[in-house]
Write a structure and sequence with these properties.
The chain is built from 9 helices and 11 strands. By secondary structure, it is α/β, with parallel strands linked by helices. The structure holds nicotinamide-adenine-dinucleotide (NAD) and zinc ion. Residues 29-35, 38, 40-43, 111-114, 129, 197-200, 203, 223-226, 228, 241-242 line the site of nicotinamide-adenine-dinucleotide.
């Protein structure tokens, strides 16, 4: 079936695009954190090699088995990079829409591990790839914030079963938590608009979320300065950054609910 070309600019009424919808699913990727200073994966930022080792090998299930202290050293280094980064206007626009209940349902699904959505105050959040600020027990899966763990305690010891803990992040060679991806798919199947922000939409299985939403009749809107593999499928593909576009998109819904006297 031939696809009609998506609208690729913010139309004059672009700020009205989210008006009238009840169930919104937002999917974010590394691009939403770019304006906070977190390097994207394919955007040329970030080191591909650390201490002579490619990061695919450092961030791998194999390395957790082989050298867990080294994995911690690598993730402590990466956490240091994001430690100075603050949530930006894009993260905040989504969090504000959630806390002010602009929609009957606003589920946020992120592929990011940087924790910036939580820092912005997002509530209904699925972190598909985990969170770099948390540790997880190798045996019992108990999770704990690293702010509660002595930074010299590496690898940290689980307070529930005393086994070692690892970073709570999905690594190369690992699959996503079934419960998380299934609940994201369920929300995708029932949303009436799916907003995809700052992802190249190539990483499986997160890239199936907009596909499921579209197949079930949702309007698909993309916010990205570049064209992506998803662009031809979108109803609206908005060329711009998360900080430029998201506050405008959500402010129209705020105005709708609280019209000027
Ligand atoms: N912040 C993080 O936690 C982080 C950072 C890098 C990579 N990752 C991981 O790497 C994988 C990469 O997939 P991905 O699709 O998320 O990232 P990606 O690097 O493949 O793609 C980033 C996308 O963001 C777009 N972009 C760049 N600046 C933007 C901006 N200011 N506003 C909106 N969009 C912008 C780019 O055009 C690109 O399409 C994911 O699995 C993710 O877990 C996470
Ligand atoms: Zn444990």
């Amino acid at each position: 079936m031939a696809l009609s070309a998506p609208n690729t600019s913010v139309p004059d009424d672009g700020r009205m695009l989210l008006r009238g919808f009840k169930r919104l699913l937002v999917l974010t990727g590394a691009g939403i954190s770019a304006e906070s200073g977190v390097p994207t994966f394919r955007g040329g930022g970030g080191a591909a090699v650390w201490r002579g080792m490619p990061f695919e090998s450092l961030s791998s299930a194999r390395m957790v088995q082989h050298d867990l202290p080294l994995v911690w050293e690598w993730f402590d280094y990466r956490r240091g990079i994001v430690a100075g980064c603050e949530p930006n206007a894009g993260h905040r626009a989504i969090a504000d829409a959630q806390t002010s209940m602009l929609f009957d349902d606003l589920t946020l699904v992120t592929q990011n591990i940087d924790g910036l959505h939580l820092a912005a105050g997002s509530t209904d959040l699925i972190e598909l790839h985990g969170n770099i600020h948390q540790a997880r027990c190798l045996s019992c899966n108990f999770r704990q914030g690293l702010n509660e763990i002595d930074p010299t305690d590496r690898p940290p010891v689980c307070s529930e079963c005393f086994d070692s803990m690892r970073p709570n992040v999905v690594l190369f060679g690992e699959t996503l938590d079934d419960t998380l991806i299934l609940s994201a798919y369920e929300k995708a199947a029932i949303c009436d608009v799916c907003l995809v922000v700052g992802t190249s939409a190539v990483v499986y299985p997160a890239n199936q979320i907009p596909v499921i939403a579209k197949r079930n009749g949702a309007v698909l809107i993309e916010v990205n300065p570049e064209e992506t593999d998803l662009t031809p499928t979108c109803d609206h593909s908005i060329r711009g950054t998360a900080c430029e576009i998201l506050p405008r998109l959500f402010s129209s819904v705020t105005n709708q609910q609280h019209p000027a006297p």
